[in-house]
């Protein structure tokens, strides 16, 4: 088992090089950038219906996004929201579905490459799947937002209804923290399970989902710390420094997502070889 780990890592590195993961991640970064503001506009227009504010939404993003990018996101959102009318929701739906589904399609192509399969599903089916996955991401983001803002109130209501004492609120705080980590894990699991043009079991998607959940959180926090303390991009790039930081963050996120798919594909391949040999 111990000897198998270096072999697995060697094969994984070879696959990363052969499948041009860095180039695919650059494509993902571009589509993520195109999807960002339509998605945020759509979420902003939903906030009044779920009794949340713009600061609540930005507070969730602020946990992971590098500091310089938050200034860019906040200023652009304020300009957009102050200049739009009641048709913003319908625009946000259309723009979000189109832009974000393009991003999902880029992930699908990367995962198909990981499994060495061609995309032969009908266009409407593939686009419909991308739209459904987009709605899933929006839904889980709203759930994460509600847990972040109203988590304590929800816990107090539940434990009061069950007749439990307030000491259980500390347990609920732990559960809420775990739930916040569980949400991206579920998103990655569904993505790795459904997106590739290959029949897979849900359990085969779990290793890559675990890697991507931990890897994305760690890389985001580490990059945010680096930008805040060492990386002076505004000095080098001037007014577009925040955009450069945002693109690098998306690029790192794309690499993590694709490597997670490569891990699942490699494990599936090795299990198939093992079953064939036996």
Can you lay out the helices and strands and say which pair or pack?
Layout: H1 4-18, H2 21-46, H3 54-62, H4 67-83, H5 88-114, H6 123-161, H7 168-194, H8 206-229, H9 233-237, H10 241-277
Helix pairs in contact: 1-10, 2-4, 2-5, 2-10, 4-10, 5-6, 5-10, 6-7, 7-8, 8-10
Q: What is the CA–CA distance across the termini? A: 17 Å
- Number of beta strands: 0
* Oligomer description: single chain
Helix content: over 70%
How many domains? The number is 1
Pick out the low-confidence regions: none
Q: Overview of this structure, please?
A:
This protein is 81% helix and 0% strand. The protein is mostly helical. Helix 4 packs across helix 10 (241-277). The longest helix has 39 residues, at 123-161.
Short description:
By secondary structure, this protein is an all-alpha fold.
What descriptors fit this protein?
278 residues; globular; mainly alpha
């Amino acid at each position: 088992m111990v000897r198998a780990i270096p072999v697995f890592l060697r094969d994984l590195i070879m696959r990363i090089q052969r499948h041009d993961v860095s180039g695919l991640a650059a494509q993902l970064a571009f589509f993520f950038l195109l999807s960002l503001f339509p998605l945020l506009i759509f979420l902003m227009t939903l906030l009044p219906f779920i009794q949340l504010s713009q600061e609540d939404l930005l507070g969730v993003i602020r946990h992971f996004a590098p500091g310089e990018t938050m200034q860019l996101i906040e200023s652009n959102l304020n300009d957009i929201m102050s200049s739009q009318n009641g048709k913003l929701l319908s625009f946000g739906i259309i723009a979000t579905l189109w832009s974000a589904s393009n991003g999902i399609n880029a992930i699908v192509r990367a995962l198909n490459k990981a499994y060495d399969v061609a995309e032969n599903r009908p266009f409407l089916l593939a686009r419909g799947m991308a739209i459904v996955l987009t709605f899933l991401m929006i839904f889980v983001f709203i759930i994460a937002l509600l847990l972040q803002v109203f988590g304590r109130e929800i816990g107090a209501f539940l434990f009061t209804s069950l007749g439990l004492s307030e000491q259980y609120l500390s347990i609920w705080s732990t559960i809420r923290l775990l739930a916040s980590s569980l949400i991206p894990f579920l998103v990655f699991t569904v993505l790795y399970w459904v997106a590739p043009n290959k029949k897979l079991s849900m359990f085969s998607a779990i290793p890559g989902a675990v890697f991507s959940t931990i890897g994305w959180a760690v890389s985001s926090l580490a990059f945010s710390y680096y930008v805040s303390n060492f990386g002076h991009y505004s000095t080098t790039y001037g007014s577009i420094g925040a955009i450069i930081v945002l693109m690098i963050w998306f690029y790192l996120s794309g690499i993590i997502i694709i490597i997670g798919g490569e891990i699942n594909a490699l494990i599936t391949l090795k299990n198939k070889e093992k079953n064939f040999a036996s």
